[in-house]
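User: Can you fold this complex?
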Amino acid sequence: MADIVLDQVTKRFPDGALAVDRISLDIADGEFVILVGPSGCGKSTTLNMIAGLEDITEGELRIGGQVVNDKAPKDRDIAMVFQSYALYPHMTVRENMGFALKLAKNPQSVVDEKVNEAARILDLTQHLERKPANLSGGQRQRVAMGRAIVRDPSAFLMDEPLSNLDAKLRVQMRTEVSRIQRRLGTTMVYVTHDQTEAMTLGDRVAVMRNGLLQQVGAPQELYDRPDNLFVAGFIGSPAMNFMPATVDGGTMHTPLGDAPLSGRVRQALERANAPRDLIVGIRPEAFEDASLVTADARQNGIGFRATIDVLESMGSDVYVYFAKDIERGVDAVELAELARDSGRADTGASGDTVVARIDTATRIREGDDAELWADLRTMHVFDPATGRNITLGGDGRAGGDGSADAPGGDGAVS
Amino acid sequence: MGRNDNRKKIGWGAANTIAVALTLIPVLWIVSLSFKTPTAIVDANPWPKQWTWSNYSGILQTSQFLRPLLNSMGIGVIATLIAVLLASMAAYAVARLEFPGKQVLIGMALLIAMFPAISLVTPMFSIERALGLFNTWPGLIIPYVAFGLPLGIYILSAFFREIPWELEKAAKMDGATPFQAFTRVIAPLAAPGMVTTAILVFLFCWNEFLFAISFTSTIGARTAPAALAFFSGSSQFTSPTGPIAAAAVVITIPIIIFVLFFQRRIVAGLTSGAVKG
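Assistant: Here's the predicted assembly.
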């Protein structure tokens, strides 16, 4: 058991590329922290530096209070699960799991005992004498976990351990990883590019982009109070809708319609000395079929009409997609990057589609010119130049102001 | 369709028979000669009328053949072990590391493999004389290692390249030193490649004739193929054709056993990297 502290850790490759830029992160003993971000954001490099597989260019890495910058992986007492599992093909499951213990010169009886125990936890007992080639994907994944568990290390590092599994198995193993971590109570650093995995697994999530740490916090906090455009767009599925807005006196003009500025938003804008042109972000669930909103509630948002492009019924929810002329004016680099990462840039889907999650009681049909309503209390306002979330308060950090924007109940996360 | 299939089978069968016969005829001829009596050597019969073991018993009783056979084995085994050991380390570096001069190293290895051996005989003869290596085991082992290495590096680097690098990282995380990672994870996985390399290098050493005859002067270091050339008849008027044929058969037997046994490995080595396993 140990805490892991990254203090201004930087990685610069020999060709000059800056992969990780002064990351500082305190991971408490027993904590489950997720590093998440699009590919190339430096999350795997960060993990490899913690593991000792990559040298640290600058900064300090401490595990259990000890500086380990120059220690070999084997002297750091950490175990790692690789994306490809990296099982030794010439060894049986038992030998794979016992390899580290054998190298550490444990007596055979201890090795057997620990391997059997881990196999029992992971339900691998009947497969112990088989070779990895004869196992299914899920079983291989469990062997990889087992190899880490038997060592009883002070921390686990996981590099996208579930990304080679099919969707159904991935959800199962996600629960499994969570259960094992809770049971063992070992510090875990988990890298993924999948925001759903990040949201469901971690105690805390660290979002990275271009080698920089964007925001660290509990999943719900990242969701409710994103520091900037990138985090807002990355966390949440379907993603937050962004549209340009202009402030004119006490009124905000958006593609959905005009709305009076609420007191809190106005204060936040004044304090931040915000420009006139802004980007607003509205989550899909902030929308509703206008006919299902009580007249009382309506004054907290704006009603508007839109032609429904596509309607997806998920059973528990209904997603509607409609077009609004919002592409123009939303050209922040962060959003372009998010589009690239999600593959939207490749599929050619235009950025001016808005996604709304509405109640299943709706009578809206595909192709309707429907009347919708958007709740503006949970709206976020971003500065297009810096990407900063203005509604969170002056310093861009989670402040007292932001929580007032959140709907009732969500304020309790921090 | 059935008739078509049959016709195809017959066609291929005929082609195969011809190909096999063409390659086997010289071998069978040698076998036949080795069982003939001296007087029957020049008769036109393809097969001996009178079978005799005398050629075999003759060569197996003379140190003129037994000692070179021992030399062949000793030199072949030692050269193979050294070549595989060095080649596996060099190939690992070539496959895994980026270092200055890597392309030069690969180029040099290829150059050595393609260098016409005959052009090296004269200078190497002088060098070996000067160094006192002439007519010794090391005098043959060293050039054999030199010529076995390029082959070994090529085959083994193809094998190493196919081993996922993450296995080595996993071994490191499991607490292995770089040497342990190599010996306990990487080398066992490359073992088929090493066996293949060993077989090919050994075959090369076993069959080599030019250096063997140039750098030796007595049966103290002369290998079996070279020794054959020095066989003499029982008198100066009898040609030693029978004994030579018998000796040729004897030194071919290990090769045949080797190849039958390791056939698949040899093919795997020669085609490794060509297709994804």
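Chain A has 13 helices and 20 strands. The longest strand of chain A covers residues 301-313.
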